Amino acid sequence: MLLNSCCVCPQAQRLLLQDGSLAHFTVQSSSALPTITLGLPANARSELDLSPRKVGRVPMVTGGQSVYLPLGMEEQSGSLSPHLQPVLLLEPSRLVHTPMLAVPGLGTVPLQFAPQMDRLAPGGGPHKALSRTRSEPLPQSLRSLHPLLQQHHNSQLLERLKQQTHLGKSLLWEKQKQLQQLRRQTAHMETLAVPMMLGSAHRPLFRTQSSPASTSLTLPDKPLPIPAPEPHSKPRFTTGLVYDSQMLKHQCTCGDNSSHPEHAGRIQSIWSRLQERGLRGQCETIRGRKATLEELQSVHSERHVLLYGTNPLNRLKLDNRKLAGILSQRMFVMLPCGGVGVDNDTIWNESHTSTASRMAAGSVTELAFRVAKGELKNGFAVVRPPGHHADPSNPMGFCYFNSVAIAAKQLQQKLSANKILIVDWDVHHGNGTQEVFYNDPSVLYISLHRYDDGNFFPGSGGPAEVGSGAGEGFNVNVAWTGGLDPPMSDAEYIAAFRTVVMPIAQEFSPDVILVSSGFDAAEGHPAPLGGYKVTGKCFGFLTRQLMGLAGGRVIMALEGGHDLTAICDASEACVSALLGIEEPLSEEVLLQKPNANSVCSLQRVIQIHGQYWQSLKTFSSSVGLSFLGAQRRDCEETDAVNALASLSVGVLTSKSLPDEPMEHDDNSM
């Protein structure tokens, strides 16, 4: 595949394929994409934007793939740098190709250099070719790269490509038989609940402590074990937990967790903490499962599902003609760490991301079914990657498939759930969930998130976004504004639940409650990732509030949250609450009044949604009170009403008595 000379225009990218046809695509510059790591919405620039990169030799991939690689952030370039982004297009013309050379994140692809493309780089002089497997800066000397890129080695690669390209149908048939045998072995290993690693390049993360010293974790030989339920044992009617080690394999190929806030250590730390505290033993652990393609398509487009829900192994079972056209549209960026992503934040692992994302969605759905059918009391899903930013046709913000939205759709379609409440307390607005149910009156979506007048990622979720059509009024955004002066904390979230969330939820009267339980509003997260100060105990308190609705049928699914200690504390508090373990907040917290910025934000929500929810009107005057202060006021008002009622009854009773002669007077007569 050769790159057409018009590549410098970000709106008119074209690839000249080997058969002479042109493939058109667009490339967004990094500044046009929302950036969750930096807390930026779309079209926002930051001083931390990547410096311009120098474009070297553009690799020509003969197997129908194209790779554009940056040379290093320390080098500057001329006019091309803002527009020529590092982009990888996977398998645009073939589903099966001959592997020849390893490319980080994409497995193995045939690769050769096209000398005629050197003229694209300013100066036209020699440039270093990039071959990276680690995240440290490239060596400055061409001598250190010579063993990997010598001409003799490239000639050998091309010669082997020619030989293997003409092996014919027999070789392809043998490869397919091997893949089928591998699938059978994988299925057998999954039946035995023994995690199986494909290849030996990456081992799963493992931790024995839930309070890490750093985010760069060592990898042991064995993954964290998951106790498998007895084959014929009846599940206990208690809190359900779901977790699967396959979700650990979704990792950036750079191998450096410090570059990626959303990494496998998040769920591994939580799972370890629940074990350490003895909570897992009190819960019923269910087996996770992958969501089916049909389940994914209840929320996402077919194109999105095939792009991000399949991998080279399971694509063999699908329609090759349909896949060939869809896969030609895949677009990836080369991340500064050397890995591959679908945007600046969301890493892609060709072998494991689709499986992990489907496992997260399927596990949340399975847990929701068990709770809705009365097999479990409530549940907590320890899953990744998160999902609430994924809209029907786009991944973003670490998310590929919207697990909570998929679970809600399946509850509607298969269990005929009439009214579903989704509460999203991740510090980022769940733009994907909002879009899915924006005109659906049977799903009430309430989100509490940092908004800052649209200047915090993802930029959506304003209080005036109330739903449309029949769904008008069923989309409630508690959009915190005012930045971090001061940051929102327990008092503000308790006030939001008291004056907005619980009154609307009680009036809605849901059949089941799903919680997008992101913990990045917890204290411990830097300003770009949240900056708020909500404690783990507060999340437990809010959980207990929700358990008073829908017969206690509450299903919580992990979304964001990247400080490991904070998310472990919050998860422990929420699971404890689901189990009925009381951990009351201190009187000091319950006496704290919400800050002025939060009061303004809540009054704005009440003003807008008062026309849809009658229960809100009585809370407008009490938004600024503390939790205990509001309780005292309610008690005083109740006592006053009761006193007035008693007085009225007494007056009416005295007036209703007739004037009759006394009995002793009759006797005297």
Automatic annotation (TrEMBL):
Active-site residues, Swiss-Prot/TrEMBL: H389
Domain (Histone deacetylase) ranges: 260-578
Domain of life, source organism: Eukaryota
Binding site for Zn(2+): C252, C254, H260, C337
Single GO biological process annotation from the record: negative regulation of transcription by RNA polymerase II
Cross-referenced SUPFAM superfamilies: Arginase/deacetylase
Subcellular location: Nucleus
Keyword Hydrolase applies: yes
Record has ATP-binding as a keyword: no
Site (Contributes to catalysis): H562
Alphabetic keyword roster: Chromatin regulator, Hydrolase, Metal-binding, Nucleus, Repressor, Transcription, Transcription regulation, Zinc
A GO CC term assigned to this protein in UniProt: histone deacetylase complex
Pfam families: Hist_deacetyl
GO molecular function terms noted in the UniProt entry: histone deacetylase activity, hydrolytic mechanism; metal ion binding
Family: Belongs to the histone deacetylase family. HD type 2 subfamily.
PANTHER family: HISTONE DEACETYLASE 7 (PTHR10625:SF42), HISTONE DEACETYLASE HDAC1-RELATED (PTHR10625)
Protein name: histone deacetylase
Organism of provenance: Oncorhynchus mykiss (Rainbow trout)
